[in-house]
Amino acid sequence: MSDADLRTPLYDAHVTAGARMVPFGGWDMPVQYPGGILAEVRAVRGAAGVFDVSHMGRVYISGPAATAFLDWALTGSAASLAVGRARYCLICNERGGVIDDTIFYRLAENSYLLIPNAGNRHRVLDWFGRIIGQRFDGGVTINDRTMQTSLLACQGPASLSLAGGLAENGLAGLRPFAWTETRLKNCGEASGAAALVGRTGYTGEDGVEILAPAAAAPAIWQALTDAGAAPCGLGARDVLRTEAGLPLHGHELDESTTPVEARLERFVDFGKDFVGRDALLRQRESGTRFTLVGLRMPGRSAPRATYALSVLGQPAGQVTSGCYSPTLDTSLGMGYVFPEFSRPGTVLELDKRGLIEEITVTSLPHYRRPRPSKARRPHRRRRHSPRPLA
């Protein structure tokens, strides 16, 4: 099997379930199941869905210089990340362009797990090897365990309850962007296997990602679907992340765009040195060529990536992602526009293969999950301590 048609440990389960398989990032992946993409999106927003994300990389980084290396290679700080926590950040080239975006977990003082995107795994490994050879030779060990492990994402309001039923020590105390090690239970032949569960995801909902041995994946998938999680494919994942305004490498992010242009500066720690910092500082001071915005238009005829945007016939930008949103019952997307057209409420012209329609600039995200309401406490009269006279 070539590196262009890899299969995850769940390939047979997807085919048996009637999923439509497509090539994605070098892997054969399910784009949707018989119930359809819109039903899968509604399942995640309303209860729980389960995704096979085993095509994404699992790269373990360790050694006495591991923390210093990641501080140099990533826009986010490894030194300030506590053991047991995770952080989203970006991997930039010298010009500030985004090689990949990633989540990394601190497993121990000098041990980390990094999750690169499927199509970028080899690029990231090559880039890391170059940096290590230049600055950290002998102090960092890279162990790519993508093929030996699996990664499943259970996402939605009911996800922690469902996934917690498979974790020996439960997940009740797991905080967002934290992880825990556990043993699997209620997973048939996979019960007793070690797993790492992180409260992370890519849908805009609460949820977890379960990393386990490759052989355990079918049993975990079966246990989650038996518990009520809907099988979901790449199509639903794309709609969900677009609703939530989450960028996708190859669409909103690539080596010709920067975190500043993508409005991701909150994930850049300018207080430390890292690859691309000087270029990003210059851009932050002098302004950007274009900026990422949300886009919205009525109906189901969604904007698509590469559709041109204009104002009075003059170029204004380009769509990077778009979809019909069943959650909001409208068409929406993201795109890059010149800064003068980035104000929410600005009406642009969308060129849909020669048909010009109006589309409106919006802020991101389009959708935020409802926060649980806190029970109001009974009012108590506050006792004031006497203040000394001035």
Characterise this structure.
The chain is 19% helix and 31% strand. It has 390 residues and is of the alpha+beta class. The protein folds into three domains: 6-56 and 147-242, Probable tRNA modification gtpase trme, domain 1 (Gyrase A, domain 2); 59-144, Aminomethyltransferase beta-barrel domains (Alpha-Beta Plaits), CATH 3.30.70.1400; 289-366, Elongation Factor Tu (Ef-tu), domain 3. The strands form four sheets. Strands 11-12-13-10-4-14 form a six-stranded mixed beta sheet. Strands 15-18-17-16-19-20 form a six-stranded antiparallel beta barrel.
Brief account:
With 390 residues, this protein is of the alpha+beta class. The protein contains eight helices and 20 strands. Helices cover 19% and strands 31% of the residues.
Descriptors:
390 residues, Elongation Factor Tu (Ef-tu), domain 3, alpha+beta, six-stranded mixed β-sheet, disordered C terminus
Element layout with pairings:
Blueprint: E1 6-7, H1 11-16, E2 20-24, E3 27-32, H2 37-46, E4 49-52, E5 59-62, H3 66-73, E6 86-92, E7 98-108, E8 111-115, H4 121-135, E9 141-144, E10 149-155, H5 159-164, E11 179-183, E12 194-198, E13 207-213, H6 217-226, E14 230-232, H7 234-243, H8 277-286, E15 291-297, E16 308-311, E17 314-325, E18 330-337, E19 347-352, E20 355-362
Parallel strand pairs: 1-3, 4-14
Antiparallel strand pairs: 2-3, 4-10, 5-8, 5-9, 6-7, 7-8, 10-13, 11-12, 12-13, 15-18, 15-20, 16-17, 16-19, 17-18, 19-20
Helix pairs in contact: 2-7
